[in-house]
Write a structure and sequence with these properties.
141 residues, elongated, six-stranded antiparallel beta barrel
């Protein structure tokens, strides 16, 4: 018995507002940054707060170096159904920096659930400069 292959999907561009809404609806994504002049990707749990992506990291995390320099990073999250070829993907590109205000750090720590048991000593916030998102829609035909 052969399995029927799904039809190719259409890719529909999302508005920035739609993209941020979808991003806010999931808790796990991937932060992309430069480590020793090479691309590095780490999974982290996040929230979207006032249009900015916020996540926790532990002491010694590789992303702390580019963040200290207010480096440009990307953040990606998605929800895809590989069997039906549907879903969505959102990418936020912007400047990352450490949150230093103690009241903000406390507030974020109550809102964020760490992805790992490693101690989370730092809060990083990405201020978006580019927000792109696409929805994969199955054609009805």
């Amino acid at each position: 018995m052969t399995q029927e292959r799904p039809s190719p999907s259409r890719m529909v561009e999302l508005s920035e507002a739609e993209a941020l809404e979808l991003l806010a609806g999931v808790s796990l994504g991937r932060v992309v940054f430069s480590e020793q002049a090479l691309p590095a990707i780490r999974p982290v749990s996040h929230i979207v707060d006032d249009g900015r992506v916020v996540f926790l990291v532990h002491d010694g995390a590789a992303i702390l170096s580019p963040t200290a320099e207010r480096g440009v990073v990307a953040y990606e999250a998605d929800e895809l159904d590989p069997s039906r070829h549907t879903g969505w993907s959102v990418i936020v590109t912007g400047t990352a920096h450490l949150v230093s205000d103690s009241a903000e750090v406390s507030r974020y720590r109550t809102k964020l659930t760490p992805w790992t048991e490693t101690g989370t000593a730092h809060v990083i916030r990405i201020s978006p400069e580019i927000i792109t998102g696409y929805r994969l829609v199955a054609d009805a035909g």
